[in-house]
Amino acid sequence: MVISIHLDSDTPLYEQLRNQIVIGIATGELAAEEKLPTVRQLAEDLGINTMTVNKAYSILKQEGYIVIDRRHGAKVSPRSTQTQDGSNHTAQLEEQLQLIIAQATIKGIDQSRFQALCSTIFAQMKYQH
Amino acid sequence: MVISIHLDSDTPLYEQLRNQIVIGIATGELAAEEKLPTVRQLAEDLGINTMTVNKAYSILKQEGYIVIDRRHGAKVSPRSTQTQDGSNHTAQLEEQLQLIIAQATIKGIDQSRFQALCSTIFAQMKYQH
DNA sequence: TCATATGTATTAATATATATAATACTTAGT
DNA sequence: ACTAAGTATTATATATATTAATACATATGA
Fold first, then answer.
1. Strand C contact at CB of residue B10, distance < 7 A
2. What is the mean pLDDT of each successive set of 10 residues along chain A, which is 129 residues long?
3. Could you write out the DSSP letters of every residue in A37-73?
4. In chain C, which nucleotides are within 7 Å of a protein Cβ?
5. Which residue intervals define the domain HTH gntR-type in the entry (chains A, B) (predicted)?
């Protein structure tokens, strides 16, 4: 998977990494159980610090997106384990969505256009439980 | 409009303010042309610094959500002026949506449930151009 | 005219977040 | 034992966030 970072972005590097990997999992570009590059390798490829990559991996692990074992490195969590934390996801999703929809509404994007956009994006997601 | 901030949140105070005001405009809780509290007043009400509120207002102004004049303070932008900056909004919206939908997908929320959630939220938005 | 309330600007101080760097530790497979 | 993986430690530099105290500019209303 190709990961690109933008040093001039206002989004922290570790967060850019985290986001791109999450999207990679959802689109299926990163298959379940697939091995991720080592922290050292990815850091070198991107020209950034080891600990920055490590932070991204730690977050992904804590969020349940990946599993890590010392010897084999990091890999995408098996499909079955992704769903299990449950409750507060919906609340958080709802909050994020509310803000996005508020902004879209004010900027003149109506519901049908918004829903169409969602459909297009959903069509890219190959992840299957 | 009731604004509440959370000091323990990972979201900066000025951003919490900014977000809540944006949502307030979209839901219609803040009408177009409605006067916002003064920076000093809001800062005092919330028990935070004047400059933090000022930063939120500055961002909202720069984003076009509110207009400010020295004497009368800040007020919600008239409906007609909200739409005008145009182009990169959709791109930004698309990017935010992609991440949210990716996360939702992995967590097992399917498209129909997602769309239903969007509908519920859209129903709260009373803002009209 | 003139006091006043408004958003702003300035300057300083402090705390936290971000990123790099160099190095060492832990662990498990070969 | 060696090695490669994540992780921990320590230090440093920079940027961001927040508060604080104060002052400035300006347009309104008395």
1. yes
2. 94 98 98 95 96 97 92 89 71 96 96 98 93
3. PPHHHHHHHHT--HHHHHHHHHHHHHTTSEEEETTTE
4. 5-11, 17-23, 26-29
5. 11-79
CA distance B125 to chain A (A): 7
Count: domains in chain B: 2
Q: Is the C-alpha dihedral spanning A82, A86, A89, A90 positive or negative?
A: positive
User: For an interface test with A, which of B29, B98, B113 has the most A Cβ atoms less than 10 Å from its Cβ?
Assistant: B98
Residue A2 falls within a domain, yes or no? no
Residue B66 placed within a domain? yes
Per the listing, tokens 């959903």 go with A122
Number of residues in chain A: 129
Cβ A108–B27 below 8 Å, yes or no?
A: no
- What tokens does A120 get? 């297009």
